[in-house]
Design a protein that fits this description.
Layout: E1 2-6, H1 10-21, E2 25-29, H2 41-46, E3 50-52, E4 58-59, E5 62-63, H3 74-80, E6 86-89, H4 94-99, E7 103-104, H5 109-130, E8 139-143, H6 147-158, E9 162-167, H7 170-178, E10 182-185, E11 196-199, H8 208-211, E12 219-222, H9 232-237, E13 241-244, H10 248-252, H11 254-274
Parallel strand pairs: 1-2, 1-3, 3-6, 6-7, 8-9, 8-11, 9-10, 11-12, 12-13
Antiparallel strand pairs: 4-5
Helix pairs in contact: 1-11, 5-6, 5-11
């Protein structure tokens, strides 16, 4: 099968390699700075049956291309897509969603779960590197009990951290308690006494009022997509150290993340062919 891989981070350079290793023909654009052999956009798209766009697919009105020699305009891309080509994109929005029929491969549970696991491992690496103490015995607050929150909290617990997890739903707090963790009500969030606070909620939950209760040696790590769940300006005024760790799967484990995307893309193609 002929694939075009357009843009993305290190995951998508690895993805192209994995697809070629499986015997497919792959042409790339927008990955020059990854050392990947690339063609002009029009040539990369010309014979492709499947067009793979990044995760996330867009950066404003351009394709998300952090490793490209030059930006790729979304309208220019959509003008090159021809009937019969299937476009697979991660979280398509804006102009792309309006102009090009495409399948959101990040809407697949098999990918979001594996992506969450990679994010949790990346977060652990940051905590181990940035905290001047061991995780053993350290009080850590995980804000949110979604996929990433669950997987991160359990990994921290296994490493001996004293883990509290905040959640809005009483059912989630019951699960947290039954997993051997300390539940907290997200409506009455209290960050006092924690050496690290890790946010996984894609909404502003750690505002100045909440952050004012943190100790000055508390590390605030945000794993949520932009703009995140931490008021970074308020944290700076309060003298708190913050890290907004975006795109952890691509940075921490691009090969594993690429394999997860490849497997999901194969599942999407199979479903489209069978549907």
């Amino acid at each position: 099968m002929n694939f075009a891989v357009i843009g993305g981070d290190a995951r998508f350079s690895r993805l192209a390699e994995l697809l070629r290793a499986d015997g497919h023909a792959v042409r790339c654009a927008g990955l020059e700075r990854a050392g990947t052999a690339c063609l002009p956009l029009e040539d990369a798209l010309r014979d492709a049956k499947i067009v793979i766009l990044p995760l996330p697919a867009c950066a404003g009105e351009t394709v998300n291309t952090p490793l490209a020699a030059e930006k790729i305009d979304l309208r220019r891309l959509t003008e090159q897509i021809r009937p019969g080509q299937t476009v697979l994109a991660g979280k398509p929005e804006g102009t792309l969603a309006e102009l090009t029929p495409c399948v959101d491969y990040f809407d697949r549970e098999e990918l979001t779960v594996r992506n969450a696991a990679a994010t949790a491992e990346g977060a652990l690496e940051i905590l181990l590197r940035e905290l001047p103490v061991t995780l053993l015995g350290t009080r850590v607050l995980v804000v949110g009990f979604g996929r990433i929150g669950k997987l991160l909290a359990l990994r921290l617990h296994l490493l001996g951290a004293r883990v509290t997890v905040s959640a809005r739903r009483p059912a989630d707090r019951a699960w947290i308690e039954c997993l051997g963790l300390e539940p907290a009500d997200a409506e009455r969030l209290n960050v006092s006494g924690f050496r690290a606070v890790v946010n996984t909620v894609p909404a502003l939950v750690l505002d100045e009022r909440v952050l004012a209760g943190a100790s000055r040696d508390c590390l605030c790590l945000d794993l949520a997509s932009k703009p995140g769940g931490i008021d970074f300006d308020a944290a700076k005024r309060l003298g708190l150290r913050t890290i907004h760790a975006l795109g952890l799967p691509g940075r921490a484990c691009p090969e594993t993340a690429a394999a997860a995307i490849r497997d999901t893309i194969y599942n999407v193609i199979n479903d489209l062919e069978c549907g």
